[in-house]
Structure formats: structure tokens, C-alpha cells
Specification:
Blueprint lengths: L1 H18 L7 H21 L4 H4 L1 H14 L6 E4 L2 E7 L4 E3 L1 H19 L7 H20 L4 H18 L3 H19 L3 H11 L10 H12 L25 H9 L1 H23 L4 H25 L17 H18 L4 E3 L15 E3 L1
Antiparallel strand pairs: 1-2, 2-3, 4-5
């Protein structure tokens, strides 16, 4: 997709601009390395028949669970700010985040389940209990890292996929409610996240503490005007926005390139979602429909959450902006996901007119399906 390439190019430019302030010379090269791997694997995913992954589903799930468990292994998993979400790769400090791989693995698993048991999704056991166990194992391991934001994100994506595949809403709602209740209970003893919610509810009282990052982000978005103050000229990146290359890169875009560029980013994600939905709707089977919808919903919902956070529409939650924010694991998985979408697009059903020799007795051409 050209739109994805444009977002990726913009991300590289803005990462270079944002990292200039603290002279983080390694940020752009590492992002380019992850992006190159993502493009290569995405190309492979586009050329391989997406239905291949139905046959490998148990291997995919096994590898995912092992990766999620490795974050808790001493000297293998990395603990940062009280969370164990990363695996150390080599001595150079490079880390991989298994929960990012789990996003795509869960989408493939739910798509496989929806395809295999579509006719039974209206029953309690096949529509709620068994898919709930499948989803719960992955989400449970992510939840205890802890990574509540990704847990809620994937719960919404999985629920949406089952609904599109034919599951009744009365089975989807309990799954989502269980995720919400678990999140609410976990907040009881989490002063940091309760502080973020309080800062969102009372922003004027927390501009210098829990709400500082969001406040500075809004100042950056507002100070750019229509056309921005110029690429590389951001003031907010000089010590005001600590997450300027990750969760809060959009305010830097707004400050340097203006409202026009910010809205262009929003429109670009809308186009990605529309194209993804179109591709999914034309898939040749239920697996393709569910898989395409899941990937599209993941990209769109993650973008919505990031934009909502930086505009103070929802409480602060670390969620990278797809294709733009720093984060090699996220970029790698997103590009593979786009590759899978393109693979679905290459094998959509196309109804062609048969040649004259294949006419039926009534003279009507028989439709032929090609992939």
C-alpha cells in the first residue's frame, strides 16, 4: 500500500528530527533496520498463500506462548519500570517485545477458529467457552507482564473478529466485560495508572505531574498552526516531551509540520482501514475475512488510541503510532500484518466471464473463480 509507505517514510523523517534534540544517533539506524526486516518479511507474507498459516496454527501458538514466558526468565527477559515485556537479543542491548508478536499470533488463531467452527459460533461452547480459553491464555500472559493496554486492545480485536465471523453479541459482551473487570481490579493497587486517570479527569490540577506529558503534547500540537514552525524546529522536543520518539511523536509532527500534516496522518490511517476492510470483504474464505479484519482493526484501533491519548481524549496509555513511532517490534509486526493483507488481496475471488465454449444450455456464461 502506498499509504503505508508514506507513513513509514514520514516516521523515519520525524524520528530523525525528534532524536536530534538529545543526539540519539542510534534511534534512526535501529528503526531502519527493523523496518527493513519488516518489509522483507512482509514481502514474503504477501507472496505465501495466507491459508498456509491455518496448517501451522499450533506451532504459531506454541512459539507465542514460549516467547511470552521467556520475559519472566532471569537474564533473558528485561525488566524496565517494573514491567517484564522484553527479551534481550544479543549483547548490544537490542530487545524484542513478545506481546507485539502475540498480536499477530492471536489474530491468526482467532481467524483459524472462526473458519473451523463458524457454523457453531452461535452455541455457548463453541461461541464463548472454547474461544474464550484460547484468547484468555494469550491475554493472561500479556496481562501479568503487566501490559493492560495491549490486553484490552487485543480483547477488542478478538471480540470484533468473532462478531464478524458470526458469533452472537451475547457471547462477545461477556468476554469484553471480563477484560474490563480484570483491568479495573488491577487498577486498585496501581497508583501510577490511577494517577493517569485522575490527571485525565482533572487536567488543570496535574499539568506538572501525572498530566505533564499530555499537557506538553497539546502545547506542541497547538503551537504548530496550519503549516508548522518548520522541520527540525520543534521546541517541545528539547526536554519537554520525554516520549517524543515513541507515544508522543504526533505532537512533534503537528508542531513542526502543522495541522495540515497532522490531519493528513489521520486521513492516511482512515485510508488504510478502508482498504483493509475492502480487501477483507472480498476474501475467498472465512479465514481470510477474519484475518484481514483482525489486522485492519488492530492497525486502526491502535492508531485511534495513540491519537486519543495525545489529544487528551482518553487517559495516558503507552501505545505507539503504527509505522511512525519508534519501536522495532511493533514496526516489524505491523509490516508483516500489511504483507498478510496484501496476500489476501492477491487471492480474492474474481468472477470472470467464461469463454464462449463454456456456455451452458441456456446460453449464460458460467462464472469461474480464480485466485
Amino acid at each position: 500500500m502506498r499509504t503505508v509507505r508514506t507513513l513509514l517514510a514520514l516516521g523515519m523523517v520525524m524520528l530523525y528530527s525528534s532524536s536530534m534534540a538529545d543526539k540519539s544517533v542510534h534511534v534512526l539506524p535501529m528503526q531502519m533496520l527493523w523496518g527493513s526486516m519488516g518489509l522483507a518479511l512482509g514481502l514474503v507474507a504477501a507472496r505465501v498463500d495466507y491459508r498456509f498459516w491455518k496448517k501451522q496454527i499450533w506451532l504459531v501458538l506454541l512459539v507465542t506462548v514460549v516467547l511470552l514466558l521467556l520475559v519472566f526468565v532471569p537474564h533473558v527477559g528485561a525488566k524496565i519500570n517494573g514491567a517484564r515485556r522484553w527479551i534481550n537479543i544479543g549483547p548490544s542491548g537490542v530487545r524484542f517485545e513478545p506481546s507485539e508478536a502475540a498480536k499477530l499470533a492471536l489474530i491468526v488463531a482467532v481467524a483459524w477458529y472462526a473458519d473451523r467452527y463458524q457454523r457453531h459460533l452461535g452455541t455457548f461452547w463453541r461461541g464463548l467457552f472454547f474461544p474464550g480459553l484460547l484468547i484468555g491464555v494469550i491475554l493472561g500472559l500479556i496481562f501479568i507482564e503487566p501490559d493492560r493496554g495491549t490486553t484490552i486492545l487485543l480483547a477488542l480485536v478478538a471480540g470484533g473478529m468473532l462478531f464478524v465471523a458470526g458469533a452472537h453479541w451475547k457471547f462477545i459482551i461477556p468476554m469484553l466485560l471480563a477484560a474490563v473487570v480484570a483491568g479495573a481490579v488491577s487498577l486498585h493497587g496501581d497508583s501510577m495508572r490511577k494517577g493517569r486517570i485522575d490527571a485525565w479527569l482533572h487536567p488543570e490540577l496535574h499539568r506538572l505531574d501525572a498530566g505533564y506529558q499530555t499537557h506538553q503534547g497539546i502545547l506542541g500540537l497547538g503551537s504548530g498552526g496550519w503549516t508548522g514552525i518548520g522541520l527540525g524546529n520543534s521546541r517541545q522536543k528539547h526536554g519537554f516531551l520525554s516520549e517524543k520518539t515513541t507515544d508522543f511523536i504526533l505532537p512533534i509532527i503537528g508542531e513542526e509540520l502543522g495541522l495540515a500534516a497532522t490531519m493528513s496522518v489521520v486521513v492516511a490511517f482512515v485510508l488504510v482501514v478502508v482498504c483493509g476492510m475492502y480487501i477483507s470483504s472480498r476474501a475467498a474464505d472465512t479465514f481470510g475475512v477474519a484475518l484481514g479484519f483482525g489486522i485492519t482493526f488492530l492497525i486502526g484501533l491502535q492508531a485511534i488510541i495513540n491519537i486519543a491519548v495525545v489529544t487528551d481524549t482518553m487517559p495516558n496509555k503507552g501505545m505507539p503510532l503504527p509505522f511512525i513511532s519508534k519501536g522495532g517490534s511493533d514496526l516489524l509486526i505491523m509490516l508483516i500484518g500489511v504483507g498478510l493483507l496484501l496476500g489476501i488481496a492477491r487471492r480474492v475471488r474474481v468472477v470472470e466471464r467464461a469463454p464462449a465454449t463454456s456456455l451452458d444450455p441456456e446460453g449464460a456464461a458460467r462464472p469461474q473463480l480464480s485466485y
